[in-house]
């Protein structure tokens, strides 16, 4: 049976972004003896505390401060970790808040995406939502590093999208 001519079925499209080459590692992912992909970490100073998980089932690796600093009340600060990382291709590292700091001191984390090809020093942006300055001591656990799988499909510009029941409704449109 002959295949249909797809050019007559699919409307003309334009790519909206240039092709970005993917990382090339010949399909090899470095793994531990148990076959688990590795989170490779480089210490950038003697003050660096390696990321660690608090328990065997912890999702995140605790990140620690490499400096003493203050996060001003209702302000923000960039806290150095003096770490550089290499994560497996097909993942990204997300910097997430620590629940204890959020609950007890109103400390949150911002701008938390680290791409697989970034090799610079990891800094953590802390936001202080309280009315009291927050003191960070060297070695304090300030955030969590979570490794997440991602999908990076090619971008295809189209004239229309399929319709759904929800449509363009957002910001609570599906609630009561």
Automatic annotation (TrEMBL):
Transmembrane segments: none annotated. The keyword Protein transport does not apply. Its cofactor is Mg(2+). It catalyses: dUTP + H2O = dUMP + diphosphate + H(+). Residues 50-175 form the dUTPase-like domain. Pathway: Pyrimidine metabolism; dUMP biosynthesis; dUMP from dCTP (dUTP route): step 2/2. GO terms for biological process: dUMP biosynthetic process; dUTP catabolic process. Gene3D superfamilies: 2.70.40.10. Its EC number is 3.6.1.23. Pfam families: dUTPase (PF00692). Keywords: Hydrolase, Magnesium, Metal-binding, Nucleotide metabolism. It is an enzyme of class 3 (hydrolase). Involved in nucleotide metabolism via production of dUMP, the immediate precursor of thymidine nucleotides, and decreases the intracellular concentration of dUTP so that uracil cannot be incorporated into DNA. This is Deoxyuridine 5'-triphosphate nucleotidohydrolase. It comes from Quillaja saponaria.
């Amino acid at each position: 049976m002959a295949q249909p001519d797809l050019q007559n079925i699919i409307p003309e499209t334009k790519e909206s972004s240039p092709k970005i080459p993917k990382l090339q590692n010949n399909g090899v992912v470095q793994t531990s003896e148990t076959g688990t992909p590795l989170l490779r970490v480089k210490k950038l100073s003697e003050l660096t505390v390696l990321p660690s998980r608090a328990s065997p089932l912890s999702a995140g690796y605790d990140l620690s401060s490499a400096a003493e600093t203050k996060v001003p009340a209702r302000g923000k600060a960039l806290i150095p970790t003096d770490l550089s990382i290499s994560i497996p291709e097909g993942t990204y590292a997300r910097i997430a808040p620590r629940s204890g700091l959020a609950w007890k001191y109103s400390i949150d984390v911002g701008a938390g995406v680290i791409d697989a090809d970034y090799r610079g020093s990891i800094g953590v942006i802390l936001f202080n939502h309280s009315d009291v300055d927050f003191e960070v001591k060297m070695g304090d656990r300030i955030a969590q590093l979570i490794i997440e799988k991602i999908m990076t499909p090619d971008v295809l510009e189209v004239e229309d999208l399929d319709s759904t029941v929800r449509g363009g409704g957002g910001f609570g449109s599906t609630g009561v």
